[in-house]
Amino acid sequence: MNIQRSIKTLAAAMLLLAGFSVNTASASTSGNSVVTVAGGCFWCVESDFESVEGVKEAISGYAGGTTTNPTYKQVTKGGTGHYEAVEIHFDPSTVTIENLFSLFFRSIDATDSGGQFCDRGESYRTAIFVKDNAERIIAENAKREAEAALGRMIVTPILDAGEFYRAEDYHQDYYKGKKLVLTRFGPKKQSEAYKAYRKACGRDDRVRELWGSEAAFAGNH
């Protein structure tokens, strides 16, 4: 009788421990997921996606190239293979990866293979970087859906994710920075310089031209 009771107690303890382990693992992963996209100027992509409910943070950086720890000067000069990219950290219980990819296609000119808006060259091309086959399937489905909705061929590639390199600190949250900078529009706070650049570059006008009422983020600036 005592042996049976001991066996039952041990079994119950093992089940409790297993349940605790599963719950702990779930808690550590369910609240944060990451996707990486390139949509031209990373200041703009960062600004756009940090306005989405469920997105915790968007980090400007470089992805898709071969140069280790690239600098902004190296990337924009060309030859590194890197895109200006943004790593989007989000809570999948609030916003899904499908939602984010749909918004992404509706916030860029996915018909342009040579850059984005006024920014030209390889570092300003668009792309989605995927970590595994499941993510690739979701991205491909989003691309097909956007292509059908747009009625035009989308040239944005879906690429295997490699190393993501965080951009220099002065690029992070540039769109809301308060530091005074010298621009072609004269001395301005970073936040004001960002708005002036975005308007002059024609990003929102082109996205509205392509997507009309479906244009994501175009009315936010």
Secondary structure tally, helices: 7
Show unreliable segments.
1-29
The spatial strand order of the largest sheet comes to 7-6-1-3-2-8
Alpha carbon gap, first and last residue: 74 Å
Shape: globular
Mean pLDDT: 88
SSE sequence, one letter per element:
HEHEHEHEEEHEEEEHH
The major β-sheet equals:
6 strands, mixed
Rg, rounded, reads: 22 Å
Strand content: 15-25%
Helix fraction, binned, reads 40-55%
Counting DSSP E segments of at least 2 residues, the number of strands comes to: 10
Explain this structure to me?
- With about 220 residues, the protein is an alpha+beta fold.
- α4 packs across α5.
- The radius of gyration is 22 Å and the shape is globular.
- The chain has seven helices and ten strands.
- The relative contact order is 0.16.
- The protein has a six-stranded mixed sheet.
Summarize the structure.
The protein has 221 residues and is an alpha+beta fold. It has helices at 2-30, 42-49, 72-77, 97-105, 133-150, 190-201, 203-211; strands spanning 33-39, 55-63, 83-90, 115-116, 119-120, 126-130, 158-160, 165-166, 180-183, 186-189.
What topology does this entry show?
Layout: H1 2-30, E1 33-39, H2 42-49, E2 55-63, H3 72-77, E3 83-90, H4 97-105, E4 115-116, E5 119-120, E6 126-130, H5 133-150, E7 158-160, E8 165-166, E9 180-183, E10 186-189, H6 190-201, H7 203-211
Parallel strand pairs: 6-7
Antiparallel strand pairs: 1-3, 1-6, 2-3, 2-8, 4-5, 9-10
